[in-house]
Structure formats: C-alpha cells, structure tokens
Amino acid sequence: MKIILGIGGGIAAYKAAELARLLMQQDHQVQAVMTGAAQEFIQPLTFAALTGRKVLTDLFAIESAIEHISIAQEHELMVVAPATADLIGRLALGLAGDFLGTLYLAFTGPVVVAPAMNVNMWQHPATQANLETLRQRGHRIVEPDSGYLACGMTGPGRLADPETIVEAILLETRKRRDLEGEVVLLTAGPTQEPLDPVRYISNRSSGKMGYALAEAAAARGAQVNLISGPVHLPAPRGVELIPVRTAAEMREQVFAHLAPATIVIKAAAVADFHLSHVPAQKVKKTAARMSLELDPTPDILAELGRKKGDRLLIGFAAETQNLVPEARRKLESKNCDMVVGNLVGGADVGFESDRNEVVLALRTGETIPLPRASKREIADRIFDQVLKLRLALHAANGH
Length: 399
Ligand code: PMT
Fold this sequence. Notes:
This protein is an alpha/beta fold. It folds into two domains: 2-175, Rossmann fold (3-Layer(aba) Sandwich), CATH 3.40.50; 183-272 and 291-396, Rossmann fold, CATH 3.40.50.10300. The protein has helices spanning 13-25, 38-41, 44-51, 67-74, 85-93, 99-106, 119-123, 125-136, 162-176, 208-219, 247-256, 300-306, 323-333, 375-396, and strands spanning 2-7, 29-34, 77-83, 111-115, 140-141, 145-148, 154-158, 183-188, 193-194, 200-201, 223-228, 240-243, 263-266, 273-274, 295-296, 312-319, 338-343, 355-362, 367-374.
C-alpha cells in the first residue's frame, strides 16, 4: 500500500523512524513528509535512507506547485506520527501553511493520527476539542501511552509503540473497502412544513447523525445518495446531496432514488403533521388566538417497508422514554431490518449534539446497545452491524 507518513516536531520523532522501518519491512511504499519543527529533532536524511525516497519538507522547494495534489492522489493512507498538539490543531483547522498541511487537505483517503505530547497539553480542552474534530471526520486516533514522559512528568502523552500504530493502519485499511459496491440511500435533518409564506413548523434535528452516516459510508467505498432537510452542515465529501424542505418533497426524492439502493437508512426527523392547504398570504395577527388544523404527513418509512424488496431497511426511533420497546415496535410495524433507537431531550445525545448513544433493534431479535461516542463513531458501528445483519439474514434464508 502507498502510505504518506507525516512527521511532527516532537521528541518522539525518532520513533517515526522505527515506524517507517516497520512499514517498509511489510513492503509498503512510504512517502515521508516532515514539518519544519520535525527537522529540528531528526534529519530528513534518516527517512530518505529508510524509505528510499526523497523526503518532502518544503512546499515551495518542489519542481511544480501541484506536486502535493499528485502525491495525495497516488497514496492510499496517511499516518501522522508523532502528531504534536500544534500539528493536531493545524489539521483540525485545515491550515495549509506547510507541505504536510496542504497534503492533508488534498488527501481524500483514510487518516491515522498518533498524538504525542506532555500530559497537561494532552489533557487541555483545546487539544481534546481538536481531536474530537478529527474523530468527527472519521480519522482513527491512536491513543498515546501513559508513563514517564521526556519532560520528567508521568501520565498519558507518550507516542504509542510503532507496532500499535501499524496495527491501527491495518484496521483502517480493512474497514475502508467493506461497503464497496453498496448504494446507500440516506435521509437526514428536519423537514419544514409551511404555515403560510412566512412561517413553518419544524424540529431540532441538525442533520449531524445522518451526515455522519453519509461520511462513514462514502469513506468505506459506498455510493451515497443523501436526501437532506435544511441544515447548516457542509455537503459530505464524495456524497450526492439532494436538498428538500417538506415531508412530501422528501418522500418524492426517496422514491425517485430508491431503485438502485441496496441499503436505506432513514435518519431524518420528518414532521408527522402539516397544513394541507397553505394560505397564499401571510396570516395577519388580527385574531386573539390562532389554532391550527394539521393533517398527518406521508409515513415514508412505513411505505418503504411495504416496498422493501431485498434491500436492507434501517429506521430510527427518537424517543423520550420506553426506548427499546418503541424501537422494537417500529421494527415490526414498519417492516424494518434494524431500528436505531436514541433518547432525545437529554444532554449530549440525540438532537444537535456531536455525540450520541443508541440501541440497535435487529430483525434477528438481537438488541445491541452502542455506548455514547461521536456520531461518526456511532455511524461506523451501525454499518458494522448492518453488514453482520445482512450475513445473518442471508444465512437464515438459506442463501
Ligand atoms: O440530526 P441530529 O441533530 O444529529 O439528531 C439526530 C436525530 C435525533 C434526528 C436522529 O438520531 C433520529 O432519531 N432521527 C429520527 C427522528 C424521527 O423522526 O424519529 P421518529 O421516531 O419520529 O420516526 C421514526 C422513523 O420514521 C424515522 O426513521 C423517521 O425518519 C421515519 N419517519 C417519520 C415520520 C414520517 N412522516 N416519515 C418517516 O419516514
């Protein structure tokens, strides 16, 4: 495999040489890229000797100004070790002031980050927030070891052993292709149901859960069609984004994109009621009270359940209580293969949060809790279970 090895400027830079040696021993092609600070700790010549390739250090010293683009396109995985606090911050912000930062933005494959720094720097909220940003992007973080640190203190912050980093690279590679050939149809975000040309009813869905599922599927090789209500998130990379506003528009786009889909996941918070006849003019504040006569919207998930075919259908259940019984009820009543249940209304889960905690109700009868984690981590775990479920259902049907 062609691997980019990004080396940051920490005392652990010497261990990156051992990592380079291990990767070369496993017949990978390694392209070393060093930050300016890294060159204060170890010579580029070390990595040139170990990898047999010119070490990239200075963005402006290369033959052509677009070499970082071709290098990004040629390589299959990027590992950054040691990733210092400064380097993690620059990657999180997408700063492209040096070769490594520019290469990171141009690279679209899996990224493995192995931090190394003083324990206080490691525990600082700024560092942890930057790491959470990288996790949200689906990068694999190789947690540092605890122990005696070069600064004389003890605690977490020591670069993980090169063997551990190599293992993480292997895991990342395996995961990468397991949705190859799948066509994933996703819905995300809220819907907006107009009350007049000015007003609408909606809900608190930010789209983060659905977008995390879209990013995870695309990163693992799937073709992704994402039908999204109005949200404030950038379109995930490598995903076909279809924007909608109302439940009716969402339903139309779902069935317009259903045919090629092998996996359908309904993460959107679709309004259950709407105004059937929206007045053409703004409703004036003349009346002392305003009452609304709302009608049910189309239940898209239930209709998908009636037209499931042999594709996998995954629904969500947003509950404030009785989570598992409600998830199982929806599994049955909507003919789903899996329902992802999550409590909404609590802190740091459900609507708007960066993290979630879910329970998976499966057609096989299993109920699998997924502990609180970033929505991207939860998304990856959901796809792990979706693939296992398909094998179990095929086996049960004698395929
Ligand atoms: O977007 P975030 O801020 O990240 O929040 C994530 C989330 C909480 C919105 C998400 O995790 C979630 O729970 N989504 C489903 C919300 C919802 O509408 O749940 P529900 O129990 O009301 O609906 C059950 C299922 O039926 C859902 O799959 C929903 O997409 C679907 N549905 C509902 C109504 C309708 N008219 N048509 C539908 O298809």
